Amino acid sequence: MAAFLKVMFAGVLMTGGVLAANTISAIAKEVKTGNLLIAQTPAKSQVIALPIALPDSADISLKDGESVSGRVIKVDPQGQTLTIQRSSKTRSIPLNKIDKVLFKNAAAYVTRVYPRMRGERKRPIGKPITWNGVPLNTFTIKNPVKGEAEVTLAPPVVSRAGLLGIQSVAKDRQYVVDQIQFNPQKRTMTIQATPY
Fold it and tell me: Dihedral through CA 46, CA 134, CA 190, CA 166, nearest 10?
């Protein structure tokens, strides 16, 4: 019996040694062939196309003191205009004439339905977030009637950690735009939005 255990023990040691040698050999080959690039590739993209919602009605404050209201239907980065619609009439306003665009009734915006647990309280509203220096050409209104828009966010507007946070929140919430301001000279905009 003792001889059998000695042979068995020797066999296990030899098998372990062979496996260790093959593993080291395989690792050495991977290092030599330059497979380290896989480890250097970022796991997540540093650019996100974020769906956002525009409430149906907006008050546009102009720099000359005038105020107009209507549904924002288009932002033209080339012509640098904002187009609004009220009733069946449309009006284009140059971005350099606009002080700010305030959206109304954002809290009443109906978003995705989520399951409610027994005893669960009303879902809290998220904290407003502001994105400064968003290039005009990264903001698109997809469907003005439904208030569907999209903004492409990337560094330096939002840090990589900030992008991960935004993606995490957007999994079960909808960002609704509260306010927009334009900087036509830099061809950028500032967007303030709240996740509901």
Answer: -20
